[in-house]
Amino acid sequence: MSDSEEEPDAELTATRRRHIHCGHAGYSLIEFEETYRDKPEKKTVRDRLNTCTRKCCSLESLKKSLLKLFPFIQTLKSYKITEDLPNDLISGLTVGIMMIPQGMAFGALSTLPPIVGLYISLFAPLTYFFFGTSRQSSLGCIAVLSLMMASILDKYDENVKETMILSQNVSVVTMTTAVPTAVLMSASTGSEYNIIGNLTTVSGVLSEDTSPEMTAEAVAKRVELAGAVTLVAGLITMIMGKCGFGFVITYMSNALITSFTVGVSIHVISSQLKNVFGLKLPRHTGIGKIVLTWYDMFANISKSNPATVIICSTCILIMYLVKTQVNQRFKSKMRIPVPIELIIVIAGTLASHYGYFQTNYDVPVVGNIPVGVPVPRLPNVLLAKDYIAEGMIIAIVAYAQTVSMAKTFGIKHNYKVDSNQEMFAIGSACLVCSIFSGFFTAASVSRSIVQDGAGGRTQVTSLIACSVVLLVIMVIGPYLHALPLCVLASIIIVNLRGMFMKLFTLRELWRKSRYDCTVWILTFLACVLLDTDIGLLIGVLVSLFIVVVRTQILSSMTVGIVSQTSEFRSLKYYKQVAELPGIKVIRLDAPLYFPNSEMFVKKVHKLTGINPIKLKKYLLKNGHTITIDDQRTNTESVQANCVANSNMEESEMISSRPQHIILDLSGVTFFDMMGVSALHQIIIEFEDIHIKVFVAEARERVMGVLRSNDFIKNHGHLMYTTLDSAVAAASATSTTPRTSVTDTGSTQVTSGLNNNPTRVQTTHSDIEANNEL
Questions:
Q1: Is the sign of the CA dihedral 704, 710, 716, 718 positive or negative?
Q2: Helix (H) / strand (E) containing 624
Q3: Considering only CA atoms, which of 132, 13, 78, 169 is closest in space to residue 635?
C-alpha cells in the first residue's frame, strides 16, 4: 500500500484515539443512574395535603394570588406621577380620539347600532386596566370580531325569519278554518287580528319596510343575543384562564392567525361594498357567501349612488395620504399622529348635516344615537344555546390577538406577560361588555401601536382614553346623527390596509418555511371561499396534520467524526468526515412512536446496509459461514456502504457488516410502547448476527417509558449517557474486521481479541423467531 493511501487511515486512527481518550469507556447509563439519580421521597397523602395547605393558605401566598389577580395594584405602587403621567396622558388622549370613529365603524360592521362600538370602547379598556398584564395593549371594538359577530347575528336572523314564516302560515290556516268571518272583520282590537298584524310587522323587520317600533324591538333582541353569546363565552374563557389553559394559543401559529385575519379582512371589505356604492344588497350567510356578495354587487353596479362613491373615495384618498405621507413618513418627528379619522368624521358629519345629504342625495346616515351609558343588565343566556360554539371561536381569536400583542410589547419593554391572566382578563372584559349592551373585545393592533408610539407606559392610558369615549357617549353622541355610513366604511377600508399588505409577504414566507406558507394559503382560501369559522377550523386541522406528518417522517442519518476534532456530523452534509472503522453511528432527530416505529426499523436497515432477517435466510439457504479476522477495512469502503441498497447481494451485505451500531437518541423527544418495541427489535435482530447495538444520550424525559417497558432492565448494559462513552466502549472491543464467506453449515466469527473462533449455529427456528419480531 502506498503512503498516500495510508495517510487518511492514519489520520482517522489518530482522531479515533483522541476520541477514545476523551470518552468514558465503560461508563454505562445504569452506573450513572445508580450513582447520581435522586430517589424521590415517598410522601403520604396526608403529608401532601399538609404541604399544599401551608403553601396555598399562607399570608404570603394569598398576597401573591391577590397581586396576580389584580396586576394594577403593582402598577399603581410603582407609578411615578412626574415621569409616567405626562406620557400616559398624551397617549390616552390620542388613543381615545382614535376609538371614537373606529368604535362606531366597527360597531356598525357587526350589523348592530354604531353606538355599541362606543360602549365596547368604554368598558373593555376599563376592565382590562384591572386585570390585564400588558402595559401598552389597547382594547376595544375591532373589525375581525365585529364581522364574526355579524355572522352569528345573520344566522339568528335566518332562524327568526324561518320561525316567523312558519308561525304565520300556521296562524293563517287556523284563522281561516276555526275563526268566524265576523271576527276577522271586526274591530282591530281583536286578538286574532293583532297576532297577524304582529307577525306581519316582525317579518318586515327582516326586510327594508319596517316600522320604527318593531325595528327598535328587533334591534334590542339582536343586542341581547350578542350579549348572551359574549357572556357565556366570556365566563368559559375566565374559567379556562384560571385553570391554566392559556397554552391553547400554541396550537395557533403566527401563519395561521395572520392568514385568518387577512381572510376575515376580505369579508370585511365585502360587507362594506353596499355602503361604498350606496346599494341595497341582501346579506348572505353560510358557505360561499363572499362569492354571492360580489356577484350581487357586480349585478347591481349600475344602480350605484354617485354621491356615496364620491364621498367614500374622497375620504379614502385623504386618509391614505395623511397616514402614509404624513404620519408614517414623519413618525420619528411626530410624537402624536394626525387624528385624520376624527377629522374625517367631524367634516363628514358637518357636510352631511348642512348639505342635507340624506334628503338631497339619498346618502344613508347613522341616525339617532342614544345619550348616556346603558343600564347594566344580564342578557338571557338561553338565547346563546345555539351559538356557543361560534362564540368560543370568537373568544379564542380575541385571546390569540390580545396575547400576541401583549407578548410583543412585553419583549420590547422587558416585562413579563402572563398568558393565563391575559385569558382571564379577556374573559372579564367580554363579560362586562355583555352586561352593558356590548359584545366581544380584543386588543387593536393599530391603536396599540399608536399607544406605544405616543409614549404610553402603563394602563393608566386606558383610563384616560375611556374618559374621552365617555365624553362622546354622554354629550357629543347625538350630534353625530348625520354622519354618512360611507364615511365609516372608508375608515374601515383604510384601517385594513396593513392586513392586505401581508399578502405581499407570501414569497418571503415560502422561502423561510414552506410548511407555514402552506398553512397560510390553505387557511386564507378556506376563510375566503367557505366561511371564517370553517377557515379557522381548517387552518388548525392543517397545522396539526403537518405537525403529525413532520414528526412521523423519521429524520435519521449516519454520522462520523470530523477530521482533527471529536465532533460527530452527518456524512452527507459535511466534508472531511469519516466513520470509525467497524462502528456505525446513527443519529435520530424525531420522536419514536407508533406512526414511525416501523419506518425506524427499515431506516436502520437501510443506513447500515444490512437486513438481519434477510441475511439469516441467506445463510440458512446457502450454508455459508461468516469469518471475521483482524485485517483493517479502509475508510472508503466503509463510507461506500453507508447507504443501503435494497437489491444488494447478500455476500456484499456480509462484507459491509460492522461490529457495532450506536444509536444516538439525543434528538428523540419522546417514546411510546411501539417505539420502545422497535428499539428492542433492532437490538435483538442485530445481536442474532453478532452485531452489538449501543444506545447513547437518551433524554431524561424518555427514561420513564423505557423503564416501565423493561427496556432498561433488559438492555441497560448497552446504554450510555453520552455518545463519547458509547464510542469508547465500542472502540475498546472493535478490531476493524474483514469479513469473508466460507461454505460451511454454521456461522464462524473470529475476533482479534480472541483467537478462538466463536461458532453459532443458524437454524430455521432462529429465523422464524426473528420474523415474528
A1: negative
A2: strand 624-629
A3: 13
Per-residue pLDDT, averaged over 131-151, amounts to 90
Residue-level pLDDT at 480: 85
Contact status, residue 412 vs residue 93, Cβ threshold 8 Å: no
The answer, yes or no, to whether residue 73 has pLDDT greater than 60, is yes
DSSP 499: H
pLDDT for the residue 223: 93
**pLDDT value of residue 75:** 86
Sequence-ordered list of residues with C-beta below 8 angstroms from that of 743, at least 6 positions apart, any chain: 622, 623, 624, 625
- Which range has the worst mean pLDDT, 17-31, 128-142, 488-502? 17-31
Instruction: Write the single-letter amino acid at 176.
Output: T
From residue 529, give the alpha-carbon distance in Å to each of 288, 518, 535: 5, 16, 9
Average pLDDT, the chain: 78
Distance between CA atoms of residues 113 and 105, nearest Å: 10
Residue pair 174/192 in contact (Cβ under 8 Å)? The answer is no
CA nearest neighbour of 370 among 213, 466, 223, 475: 475
Specify the pTM. 0.70
DSSP 626-658: EEEESPPPPHHHHHHTSS--TT--HHHHHHT--
Residue 144 CA to residue 267 CA, distance in Å, equals: 9
Beta bridge partners of 442: 140
Gap between the terminal Cα atoms of the chain: 44
Report pLDDT for 203.
32
**Would you tell me how many other CB atoms lie within 10 Å of the CB of residue 350?**
13
CA distance 749 to 632: 16
Helices (H), 37-142: 45-56, 59-69, 72-77, 81-109, 115-131
pLDDT tens digits for 504-557? 888 898 998 888 999 999 999 998 988 888 888 898 899 888 888 887 777 777
The three-class DSSP label of residue 737 is coil
Residue 374 burial by CB count (10 A; 0-12/13-18/19+): exposed, middle or buried? middle
Using an 8 Å Cβ cutoff, are 760 and 749 in contact?
A: yes
Does the structure show a pLDDT above 90 at 317? Answer: yes
Residues 6+ away with beta carbon under 8 Å from 480? 104, 345, 349, 366, 369
pLDDT tens, residue by residue, 454-468: 788 888 999 999 999
The three three-digit cell numbers of residue 90, written as one number: 398624551
Mean local confidence (pLDDT), 588-597 = 85
Mean pLDDT (whole number) for 84-109: 87
Residue 738 has φ and ψ, to the nearest 5°, of -110, 135
Burial class (CB in 10 A: 0-12, 13-18, 19+), 189: exposed
